[in-house]
Write a structure and sequence with these properties.
The chain has 338 residues and is α+β, with helices and mostly antiparallel strands. The protein contains eleven helices and 20 strands.
Length: 338
């Protein structure tokens, strides 16, 4: 019997596996896909996320991010990170670096899928393995979360995301968040000759249709070479709790409000560390409380922004209000980044 079985070999699953291996656990990751996997993702990592990468022993090349800017036409407000830079990293580059780190940490990786989970008071059986614990890192629409009755339906404020890489030199060392009437466009430098543009919207549609709400970006990218588009959604996914017996949810499987504040990767890595700590302490029942504490600021701020963004009169005042209160805007950005 192994110590920890991880369902899903994306960044959240690999972080869980590496933290587990570093804590002396025998860990196996089961993943149905091969190699480094791309995904619709903003690709910006805040300073606290980079500290997790250092602890995990992951070295992923990218572009330094020195702050966040909110942009609404000619209206703009910048906030610089006080604790050091973040980093824009292409998802495939990050995933490849984490795969290498997992191998170096002694994590066993198996190609396959987990379709059925059974557990007793002492172990979990899944994917042909018997383990003391199972970490479900099987993504936004987690089958394990649903199978265990942990999913909570979310019908309000449904949003979708779509991302494209454009072959153009970055013009800023900020993540630029461009605001329109019903969507935001996140522009992140990820390489010396490439930026990623992720559009989040309450309506579905192709990338060009979504980008049309941002004339300044449409003009800048006209005729510029780009890669394929990646889409995801609906983004909001709920969980009644993060654990059921010896099965614990991590990453997007643990519940997802929105990508609006750009903290998703850092929260996934923080959740991975908390999960492993609970496994080592033989206290899986503490994990849900620890996860809620870890994500409280993010959940409150994001839920508030999403609610405000759903009201046209309030939404149109978000960037002007940030400009009128720069100290408040800086404080919020740095609370999330710290």
């Amino acid at each position: 019997m192994i110590d920890l079985l991880v369902a899903g070999g994306g960044p959240a699953g690999l972080a869980t596996a590496i933290y587990g291996a570093k804590a002396g656990l025998e860990v196996v990751v089961v993943e149905k896909r091969c190699g480094a996997v791309d995904k619709a993702c903003g690709e910006g990592m805040l300073p606290h996320t980079l500290r997790h990468l250092e602890r995990l022993g992951v070295s992923a090349q990218g572009m330094p991010l020195r702050g966040i800017a909110y942009v609404d036409g000619a209206d703009r407000i910048d906030a610089a990170f006080r604790t050091g830079p973040g980093r824009g990293v292409r998802r495939t580059v990050l995933h490849a670096a984490m795969l290498r780190a997992a191998d170096e940490a002694g994590v066993r990786r198996v190609h396959g899928r987990i379709e059925r989970v059974a557990q007793d008071p002492y172990s979990v059986c899944a994917g042909g393995f018997r383990a003391r614990y199972l970490a479900a890192a099987d993504g936004l629409h987690s089958p394990i979360r649903s199978a265990l009755g942990l999913a909570r339906p979310c019908t309000d404020h449904r949003r979708w995301g779509i991302r494209r890489h454009v072959q153009i030199a970055p013009w800023s060392d900020r993540v630029e968040v461009h605001w329109a009437a019903g969507s935001e466009a996140y522009v992140t430098p990820v390489a010396p000759d490439c930026v990623g543009i992720a559009v989040l919207s309450s309506t579905r549609g192709g990338f060009d249709r979504q980008l049309a709400d941002f004339p300044e970006l449409t003009d800048r990218f006209a005729g510029v070479a780009h890669g394929p588009d990646r889409a995801a959604g609906p983004l909001r996914q709920g969980a009644r709790r993060r654990s059921a017996g010896r099965v614990l949810l991590v990453g997007d499987a643990a519940g997802y409000i929105d990508a609006l504040t750009g903290e998703g990767m850092g929260l996934a890595f923080g959740g991975a560390q908390a999960l492993v700590n609970c496994v080592v302490a033989e206290s899986p029942g503490d994990y849900d409380r620890q996860w809620r504490t870890l994500t409280r600021r993010y959940r409150l701020l994001t839920a508030g922004l999403v609610r405000a963004g759903s009201m046209p009169m309030i939404r149109s005042r978000i960037v002007p209000a940030a400009r009128a209160m720069p100290a408040v805007f800086n404080g919020i950005v740095n609370q999330l980044a710290a």
